[in-house]
UniProtKB/TrEMBL annotation:
Source taxonomy: Bacteria, Pseudomonadati, Pseudomonadota, Alphaproteobacteria, Rhodospirillales
Keyword vocabulary terms for this entry: Hydrolase, Metal-binding, Plasmid
Ranges of residues in domain Fumarylacetoacetase-like C-terminal: 28-228
Protein's name in the database: FAA hydrolase family protein
Record-linked Gene3D superfamilies: Fumarylacetoacetase-like, C-terminal domain
InterPro entries, per the entry: Fumarylacetoacetase-like_C (IPR011234), Fumarylacetoacetase_C_sf (IPR036663)
Any Pfam family: FAA_hydrolase
SUPFAM superfamilies, sorted: FAH (SSF56529)
């Protein structure tokens, strides 16, 4: 029997629609600048040669419906609504034509961002970790299996703050498609069951403050909610 110097953290795992089983989260990959209009609002150009990524720790997972504290060290805390791909089979150097075969399902995600810290790091050509990979920054709805939702390639993606629409776009505007992302990412990593891919956010990102309630939805996939509490 293995002995630890302290109890290991519980394995993050997301609910799956229609079952009591949960989806164990292995790694979280996030795609940057995958909508043209969002890149423009951030003052940057889209790199169309290849997608680029940043990561979040599995422990940053927060389930939809949670209330979380406003995070430390920021004055510009942003939402980013995204379609999330849940990987269900191993994949390494998978062809684009077979890429969808490794998808278990889809979910709604919020890539919560300390924008001021991200932009400061970007200006100094430093990694984005402290702006992106921090506690409670990867919000996720229940995962919908492919058998129930298919592979969404079009449909409205929306986000509202206190009932006011802030983001409204369509999945057809993704620069890199789901098969393209999986095929490319699988040349860089041995993708494993439990990996998540946050596929990027459209334009309309913006700040939230304590007391705000976020509600989002993606056609065919579902909904997501989050309440922002006072700073801890």
């Amino acid at each position: 029997m293995t002995s630890y110097v302290f109890d290991p953290a519980p394995l993050p795992a997301a609910p799956v629609r229609g079952t009591d089983a949960r989806f164990p989260i292995n790694r979280i990959f996030c795609v940057g600048r995958n909508y043209e209009a969002h890149a423009r609002e951030m003052g940057v150009q889209v790199d169309r040669e290849a997608p680029f990524y940043f990561t979040k720790s599995p422990g940053t997972y927060v389930p939809s419906g949670a209330a979380i504290a406003y995070p430390p060290a920021t004055e510009n805390y942003h939402y980013e609504m995204e379609l999330v791909v849940a990987i269900g089979k191993p994949a390494f150097r998978v062809a684009r034509e077979q890429a969808l075969d490794v998808v278990y399902g889809y979910a709604c995600g919020l890539d919560m961002t300390r924008r001021d810290l991200q932009l400061a790091a970007r200006a100094k050509q430093r990694p984005w970790d402290i702006g992106k990979d921090f506690e409670d920054s990867a919000v996720l709805s229940e995962i919908v299996p492919v058998a129930e939702c298919g592979h969404p390639t079009s449909g409205t993606l929306e986000l509202r703050v206190d009932g006011e629409t802030k983001q409204s776009s369509d999945l057809t505007l993704l620069i890199w498609s789901i098969p393209e992302l999986i095929a490319h990412l699988s040349t860089l990593y041995h993708l494993q069951p439990g990996d998540l891919i946050y596929t990027g956010t459209p334009e309309g990102v913006g700040p939230v403050r304590p007391g705000n309630r976020i509600e989002g939805s993606i056609a065919q996939v579902g909904t997501i909610t989050l309440t922002i509490g006072e700073a801890a």
